[in-house]
Amino acid sequence: MIKYTNYYKIKRSRIIIHYPVLIKNFLINILENSLLPRKTVMNYPYKDKIEKIIVSSEFPHHYCITRGKKHHIISPNFYDYENMRGGELVQQVTFEEIHQYPLAQPVSLVPASLLEAANVFEARAFLLKDYRGSGVEFGAADNPLPLPLVCDVKYADLFSPDQGVNKFRTGEFVNINIKSSFDDMNDIENDSLDFLLGAHIIEHSPNPIEVIKKAHRKLKKGGRLFFVVPHMHYTFDKSRQLTSLEHLIQDFIDYQYNRDALNIMDFIGNTDPGVRDTIDAFGLCQKFLNKEPFDIHYHTFTEENFEAMLQWANQYSGNWESYVVTPCINPQFAEFYVEIIK
Question: Phi, psi at residue 204, to the nearest 5°?
């Protein structure tokens, strides 16, 4: 029988501490080096893995280099810490030299507790801090998840940066190692991964329970499936109806491509007006009719309906050991987190 976190108990705790956390994070963001001390610890006892830190006057970002890959240093304090060591790792390079290295997981500080996270990067880094081994992240684009530097990550995506679906992404993209969608997971051997990740991607699947079933086959025993899920109440999905468990089950038991037309109509018609105006409705319908890949939020999620889906999926799509649903701790983060262990 699957073991799971009592979401409602966590939810009650969240209500009690919600406003102090918002006020504290607001002050941190305003003051940058806040007068409010945080018990922040370094993400890495792995400084020996860092070969060098590269900076350029032509480029605003700092990177550390490990195993021939570059890792964006999100937290300035991390760079300051290394700089205070005497600067022996810091090298000034040109813009061209920076782009010789492929992009990999970023470096972020890890707070002492999730509730001390000042931004989504720290929240994600806290939840991923114990990950080890090798795995695959789907749909990372220009924003890969902040896994520890000891993790060996390959990146998978069906779309390349020049295919239009990533038009809202402006940064440098990770190199695609596996050309596959989350729905297919092609070219990944069964029982081969220590972890499988997807941030803001499960809502893009027409059949999320099938994704969970396939992920179970790809993971080793004890492997982890980790989702970052947009919370519909805090995103452009807030005007849409919450996807019912019955809808999700129907998509799994009897998936029919033609039924995706209803998802497209809902996405076009009920998405928040600020985003709706940017949607190419005609182009979406044309791709649907031509059976070309298209990119929408098929489903909407909160912690409750995602957990209900997991409980049902465990009975019919894989024998999972346990899962944890971590609620959205700050509406500004607009996401909650799910970890499922094989």
Answer: -90, 0
pLDDT at 28: 43
pLDDT digits (tens, 9 = 90+) for 285-325: 888 888 887 888 999 999 999 999 999 998 876 688 999 99
| Pick from 142, 121, 110: nearest CA to 38 | 110
Superfamily of domain 110-341: Vaccinia Virus protein VP39 (3.40.50.150)
Structure tokens at 266: 């809902």
CA 123, CA 121: separation in Å to the nearest integer?
A: 5
From residue 38, alpha-carbon distances to 32, 82, 110, 115, 224 in Å are: 12, 19, 11, 11, 29
Note if the pTM is more than 0.70. yes
Query: Residue 219: CB partners within 8 Å, gap ≥ 6?
Result: 191, 193, 194, 195, 196, 225, 342
What letter does residue 316 receive in the DSSP assignment?
H
CA distance 240 to 340: 27
Calpha distance 32→179 (Å, rounded): 39
Domain ranges of the chain: 110-341
How many CB atoms lie under 10 A from the CB of residue 190?
A: 12
Is 52:65 a contact under the CB 8 Å cutoff? Answer: yes
**Cα dist. 193→156, 202, 215, 342 in Å?**
13, 19, 9, 11
Residue whose structure tokens are 């073991």 = 3
Quote the pLDDT of residue 299: 95
Cβ neighbors of 60 (< 8 A, separation 6 or more) are none
Tally of CB atoms within 10 A around 223: 21
Q: Phi/psi of residue 152, each to 5°?
A: -100, 110
- What would the pLDDT profile of 120-165 be if each residue is shown by its tens digit? 999 999 999 999 999 999 999 889 999 998 899 999 998 766 654 4
Instruction: Compute the distance between CA of residue 216 and CA of residue 193 in angstroms, rounded to an integer.
Output: 10
